[in-house]
Amino acid sequence: MMRSQKHTKKKKWLTVLLIVVGLSVVGGGAYAYSVWHSFDSAVKNIHKPVERKQPVKRAKEVTVKNGDPFSILLLGVDERKNDKGRSDTMIVMTVNPHLKSIKMLSIPRDTRTELIGRGTVDKINHAYAYGDVEMSMDTVEHFLNIPIDYYVKVNMEGFKEVVDAVGGVKVHNDLEFTAGGVTFPVGNLTLDGKKALKFSRMRHDDPEGDFGRQKRQREIIESILDEGASISSLWNYDNIFDALAKNVKTNFTFEEMLGIQSQYKDIRKNIEELKVEGENEWIPNESGKNIYYYSVKNEERQKLSDLLRNHLELGQEMVSAGQ
Known about the structure:
LytR_CpsA_psr, cell membrane, membrane, alpha+beta, signal-anchor
């Protein structure tokens, strides 16, 4: 796939807030009312507020209806039966309607940092296992020294239902590999829900490791948005909304989603992807067993913090010493 084509697909990311608002293209009459009613019911199930124990790093609350810059933490959680799971995908997005741009930063799951609210240094994706969305937001806030205003949590295990609801996804694979008994050749692929889940989970045979898996997960979700926004998918809206209600949670309200549609509709024209630069490190735990971490120096944290704080139109601040 050409670089320009990939860039165009990445511009659809913000619609994870949700396939939803794009349904304003639907016509009037009983059909439109039925879609709207189903959407309203789904949003009530999707909406889940958070109670932050740590104060958000803001002097005043963000107001979407006024067009304020804001940030989102996207969590891809691998939840399975009887297992709360960990946030294997963590992406921070800062949105600035004045600059009509988005900055998107993927944080590697093994990043070593302090878990805020627990008082220990560990892998950043453990924050979700110990303290759910709240600890994840607090920990990422501390790591980057930026406010985290909103979250969107996606259950990657159950998201295969969403893939099937939109009729499958189209992806471009640049690495041949086998996962879960399925071989994925190089090239353009069409995947059902089960294959999409296997495609998105593989990382051990990828030279890029966790970065490669995050890239595949982003492509799956972007393709879901492409397929979900198509006219043909509107005839299957009940199944789509039902799958979203089961597998997506966010603290965005219905009114804020509508505010994003009216105030931020041009932002997808300019998306910049950022990367956390770090080093592979093995550190012994209390029992002497070496544990793998992705270690990030304070200079790198400061650089990323400055970029994101500027994009949020906040003054620069020094990140805390250590992790």
